[in-house]
Amino acid sequence: MDEMIRHILEILENDARASPEEIAVLTGMSAEEVSQTIAKLEETGVIRHYKTIVDWDLVGENYVYAVIELKVTLERNQGYQAIAERIYKFPEVRSVRLLSGDYDISLTVRGKSMKDVAFFVAEKIATLDQVQSTSTHFVLKTYKEDGVILHEPETIKRLPVSF
């Protein structure tokens, strides 16, 4: 991969709102060259989507996230892709990943409550023919999401000591 393309992608990955003019300054390219390169990357599918990371806690939305690990049995002539495609169509599913180790697939799901997530797993995931077992882990707090720190470190406030 061309080093300039890599540089543009890294800039956009860190800040999807970076303008072609800002990227041009950082790369030494012209804004027009940057715009053309980005258009080509979007057209070829290298750039899939632009994303905003929202700290829902700060706006009072209380979503519950869970990581669900699945052990699956593959159907004849079908691989992991088939089960992944079936699962990622559910609107509750935020991500689907193929794993190595004890489990085969990992999902991240979002619901309005723990009960919503539990029912989703019990009614929509565990009932799939290929799913042998599930292990659900509820997310208690997210400190960092896609490289963005959501909660600043707490500062320890010490009481003054006098002698």
Automatic annotation (TrEMBL):
<dbReference type="Pfam" id="PF13404">
    <property type="entry name" value="HTH_AsnC-type"/>
</dbReference>
<dbReference type="InterPro" id="IPR019888">
    <property type="entry name" value="Tscrpt_reg_AsnC-like"/>
</dbReference>
<dbReference type="InterPro" id="IPR011008">
    <property type="entry name" value="Dimeric_a/b-barrel"/>
</dbReference>
<keyword id="KW-0804">Transcription</keyword>
<keyword id="KW-0805">Transcription regulation</keyword>
<dbReference type="GO" id="GO:0043565">
    <property type="term" value="F:sequence-specific DNA binding"/>
</dbReference>
<keyword id="KW-0238">DNA-binding</keyword>
<dbReference type="InterPro" id="IPR036388">
    <property type="entry name" value="WH-like_DNA-bd_sf"/>
</dbReference>
<protein>
    <submittedName>
        <fullName>Lrp/AsnC family transcriptional regulator</fullName>
    </submittedName>
</protein>
<dbReference type="InterPro" id="IPR036390">
    <property type="entry name" value="WH_DNA-bd_sf"/>
</dbReference>
<dbReference type="InterPro" id="IPR000485">
    <property type="entry name" value="AsnC-type_HTH_dom"/>
</dbReference>
<dbReference type="InterPro" id="IPR050684">
    <property type="entry name" value="HTH-Siroheme_Decarb"/>
</dbReference>
<dbReference type="InterPro" id="IPR019887">
    <property type="entry name" value="Tscrpt_reg_AsnC/Lrp_C"/>
</dbReference>
<feature type="domain" description="HTH asnC-type">
    <location>
        <begin position="1"/>
        <end position="62"/>
    </location>
</feature>
<dbReference type="Pfam" id="PF01037">
    <property type="entry name" value="AsnC_trans_reg"/>
</dbReference>
